Amino acid sequence: RAAGLNLYLKPCIKSSTQSVQRVHNVCDSPLVSNLPPSSFRSSSQLSGSHAPGFAKLNRREGAGGWSPLTSDRYQWLEVDLGERTRITAVATQGRYGSSDWLRSYLLMFSDTGHNWKQYRQEDSLGAFPGNSNADSVVQYKLQQPAVARFLRLLPLDWNLSGRIGLRLEAYGCPYTSDVVSLNSDSSGLIHRASAGSRTSSTDVLSVKFKTRRNAGSLLLAEGQRGLGLSLELQRGTLQLLINKGTSSSDSRLLVSMGSLLDDQHWHHVALERRGSRLNLTVDTHTERVQIPAEFNHWDIEQGNVTFSCVEPVSVAVTFPGPQSFLQLPAEAASLSGGLSVTFQFRTWNEAGLLLTFDLLSEGGVVWLYLSEARLRLQIHKTGRAVLELSAGSSLNDGQWHSVEIISRGGRLTIAADRGEGGSAHASLTFPVSGCRNPFHVFQGCMRLFSVEQREVDLIKVQQKLTGNYSNVHIDMCGIIDRCSPSPCEHGGRCTQTWTVFHCNCSDSGYSGAPAHRSVYQQSCEAYKHNGNTSGHYHIDVDGSGPIRPQLVYCNMTEGDTWMVIQHNNTERTRIRPSPSGNLYSVHLDYMTEEEQLMAVISQSEHCQQELSYRCRRSRLLNTPEGSPFSWWLGGRGSGRLQTYWGGAQPGSRQCACGLQGDCVDPHHYCNCDADRMDWTEDSGLLTHKESLPVRSLVLGDLQRPGSEAVYRVGPLWNAAFFDKETSYLHFPTFHGELSADISFLFKTTASSGVFLENLGIKDFIRIELSSSTQVLFSFDVGNGPLEVQVEAAVPLNDNRWHMVRAERNIKEASLRLDDLPAATQEAPADGHFHLQLNSQLFIGGTASRQKGFRGCIRSLQLNGVTLDLEERANITPGVRPGCPGHCSSYGFLCQNRGGCEEKANGFYCDCGRSAHTGVFCQTEVSATFKSTTSVSYTFREPYEVVRNSSSPPSSIYSEATLRGENISLSFRTNQSPALLLYVSSYSREYLALLINKHDKLEVRYKLDSSREAEVVRSRVRTLANGQLHTVTVRSPFLLPSDSEDLDPDLARLGSLGFSGCLSVVSFNSVSPLKAALLHPDTSPVSVSGPLLQSSCGSSASANPYAAENKHHLSGRTSARPASSGVIALVIFVVVTGLAVTARFLYRRKETYRSQEVKGVKQEEIPEFPFNNQTCSQTVSGESQKEYFI
């Protein structure tokens, strides 16, 4: 085997073995104080005594330091250290005995005295802090040492009462390395292993390179079986490829790193192999990749070579802002006489003016600019564009692009990157509408200016010997790739301009400037708190963490909320005997990634999964002493072997019946182990979280004749905590250096207090209630405090839960309170962005113990991690875990008379008093009736009602004392007449709700046996039209109970039966229809005939485009309230024959069937109008009528 290192690129390359050894030694020796005056240069000097050679720290020679002729931002002081040196710190001082000092400056480095590179702190901040007087020394230790021969300092700001004045020192140590220069396409340096070289499990190869080309091969490592690893530069980016042949199509990209690596500055590359893992480092960024086993050993022997590194001088110009311009000397331009202009540029902006010059002979102006990342040229004459050409595309990619403008023989040509461009005859007669100077300002770099094939000397321009300029940096290209490494998280796509980056986070499930904040909730319980019902939802279990969102089903019941995770085999599966004698094995694939699945399980309060086995002559676990016939694997990874079954405990080797002692054979601990010929079953729930989920199932006793089994592994159900609460606690330091998102809920009666605080030496982060209506988010990363605040329109100290979400990243800070619009503040484009904290994180207070928060905090999450506040509260004096009062904030979610009930970590809606059901009592309970269907409900005696007043929430009767009758129901029918509801006592007193023969709604009641029946009708006709109608009857009377007579008219009407839909039927606190459908075994209800539950009572089940109508009627009566007695019998009637199931009604059924329905006595009673209103509980706009009587 031969492994090699082949270098093909045209860069300078050096081995840094010696320098690496010095990193661990002291490297802080003075570098400037012993240099001769000839080592100093400057842009200018005020006088001979202010020369740059006097700019040595703590020296008083000459005028006590350097001062330029004029004080502006175009001055500089340069120091030649004599050789390449590792520089670790710089120190500045003002000019001795004067008012001249710098307040801030830029620091530049170079190997050659050209092509300067600005030193940036944290890859962004360029300015260094200076002095506040002339004598004190301000030293700054470089975060990353710089290696260079030349140092240049550019003043940015100085004492306004003086001028620029400077003395300086640099600290470091010598730096040596072996260098090789490769100057042709065929040159290369090869290291091959010697025959006796040793192998190891770890190899490290490091190299530094510099180049001005953006493509080439840097390294090639050869492995076995024709495989190779190559490190190649493509468009200024370093790519690690695995090669399976000689063709480029056989290469596979492993990782791409770095950017703008063709800037002719040194870049560090390191390859560290540990087994089959390879760490690739480019400058300060490291990525880990997996490599094939053929590269498990590299036998590379490095030789010692020393060459010179010859570098071409290329002077670039940086245009950083809107006031930047460069004016170059040139002869009078003429298209007819010939013209040639060439240069190169690089930028991230898609628009900007590149070049303009006058055509004196033709009397026009040439404008060369970028528009939509294309090169465009316009010639303007007398205020209008007379010629327009274009060339190139996607020229804002940060690469160097060449531009040529050539006019020869009366023909004008423009080209980009020496490709095809635009050309035209320069006749200047083609009219194009336009306006003068409609172009953006160019921000980027330019170099290699040439006019009439003569290169422009930009150093002379810098020295102001020729030309002119403003707000530009000459002899450097200050372009920065803000997308390398990408600041966008969670797969967000990074794009940029010269000054700012953007993250496209569409379809990623995340939002915010760096795609940091998840747009999804972290649990089904959180969706429930937002008012959502059962359905499929995206869950992001770690919020802004690295785990991706997953789509799950949230099953929200009245009591619990479950997250259901499906797998590929949840149905019952039948297994026939296997004559081969092999074990039957099945592997389960869950519809979520492993990382997501385990995070859900670990964060859940309770998990369960059904495991069932229905068998006939197929034993399951055998006996506890024998080897099991079947088993399953569960838990992390591929799972651990488990020999217990659903409903039993881990390690018990039992089934549920063995634990309960009711197996079909008491000598065994599973029903199936009885080995019977008839079918039996072992099933139950697996609830031990460490054993979940079930990964695979192995069934063994299926070889014998007659053996047969059916198995089922249900989906995984998880019930997750929504919150944990407390008041004042402290935790370890919060690490949110680049991105920090914080969310929590609070409730309080105090008008101010600190929710959260973490301090550093200078940096800090804090969220507080600054007033009763204002939440304040403040922090400092070194640029000075930045504050974001949200003002609420109502007081926040209302003892209700309020949601706070704060986020800070390198681009902006935002704060959101409840559902109010988010407030944002942009971070400085060139400033510190690392948040450096070192103290404890305080929750509900501050380090100084001032302005502590008094109230409750729950569901606190920092960067997607939920802090266990309850656990910390249990061991913290003065703090109580838990914080009741969820119903004060979420009780409004319970609808239709549903009552909010507190839970330890949340709430639930008790639908016992409601005719509805569902997690928020929002679902109608409806049934379809045939003409033969009847439902009757019998009230209990008073003492029975009282005795059952403490019944569970599912109870449908709870009021012991009735103060009046309140009846409501919805119906849908095409039948008229029809009896809808009949309420009676053991006397002739009754109340009936019906549709009469005129298709009107009617309430007929009789409260005194000595009086005739009274009637209340609505004015609305055509109620039997198949649409949904809702009726409410509210009467101030009670029904006494004396006799057993029945109104013959109602008996006749009841005999007609009812066909249609009835929904959400309630009488006071009783819901007869709900009792019959959902609680038939525990309620005093009887049903005859077919009763089918359906969604016919939902307004969404009919015409969704019809207008919604609800009818409210008010009844008037002179009947006296009953002084004693209760309702003895309520009969909810839709029957054939008589509409009542009480025995005295059935006794008279045949008598009334042959009679006509008699008219009521009081026909003169006026009909009552109704009002149209909107029902907040209706899902859609179906034509629903609601009557209140």
Automatic annotation (TrEMBL):
Domain Laminin G stretches: 315-477, 718-883, 934-1096
Disulphide-bonded residues: C856-C883
Signal sequence extent: none
Annotated EGF-like domain residues: 479-516
Domain of life: Eukaryota
Keyword Transmembrane helix: yes
InterPro entries: ConA-like_dom_sf, EGF, FA58C, Fibrinogen-like_C, Fibrinogen_a/b/g_C_dom, Galactose-bd-like_sf, Laminin_G, Neurexin-related_CASP
Membrane topology type: Single-pass type I membrane protein
Subcellular location: Membrane
Any one cellular-component term (Gene Ontology): membrane
Descriptive protein name: Contactin-associated protein-like 4
Top-level taxonomy: Eukaryota, Metazoa, Chordata, Craniata, Vertebrata
